[in-house]
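ok posting inputs for the cytidine-5'-monophosphate job
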Amino acid sequence: LTVQDMAGTQVLVSLGPTREFFDPARYWSNPSTGIMGGALAMAAWMRGAQVSVVHGPVDIWLPPAVSYTAVNTAREMFTACTDLWPAQDVGIMTAAVSDFSPVPHGPEKFKKRSLNSGEFTVPFAVNPDILRTLGHTKTTGQKLIGFCAETRDLAGYAAFKLKEKRCDLMVANSIASPGSGFGSPTNAVTVLDAHNRLEEWPVLPKAEVAWRLLEWLVHILR
Ligand code: C5P
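and the output
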């Protein structure tokens, strides 16, 4: 028995971390592995969707039928996602985008010998919010799922971010509880939709979280 309830649906999934380079040898990043986004891309493909993945540096396998755009920086991810967005029915933004980038030192490696004290200061610039940009340019038929990693008040932050980024579904995952968050094969999430339906799920395999989220999405799409 096959479930093809996403046949004919174009889905964009962003996943993984971004790398914000300071000099040719050093970058600012986070521990995202892309497992949650990979599970969603896989589940969407299995349900018949045409899936495009924009990914930071990750090591995950997906079926060859999925189309890929590899990026490093948040700005590259922004360009790739905003270029693809008009052709999509659904956006699922699981990427752990760096909110800030160090202002680059320049093309040469920063030398510790150039320091004359035990510390130095690096200025950071704010990156564009990709999800928010997609939310604020979405058309009537397009649906958007956002993620957020939180240490407390998952429902509160989910409500705020759902509204602020104009999402249809916001998934808050706990990065403070065991069996959840970065690099874990399981996740504990709180899910909120634009009709204020709220669910708190127990620790589940990320593949099951993905399947359940698509169940919810298919319901919203109908
Ligand atoms: O506001 P916060 O970073 O917690 O929101 C997380 C959500 O926003 C994720 O879905 C992430 O992919 C997206 N995001 C983004 N661009 C940013 C920061 C976050 O698309 N610069």
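notes: Residues 14, 74, 93, 95, 97, 99, 127, 129-131, 146-148, 161 surround cytidine-5'-monophosphate (CB under 6 Å). Residues 151 and 176 are 5 Å apart (CA to CA).
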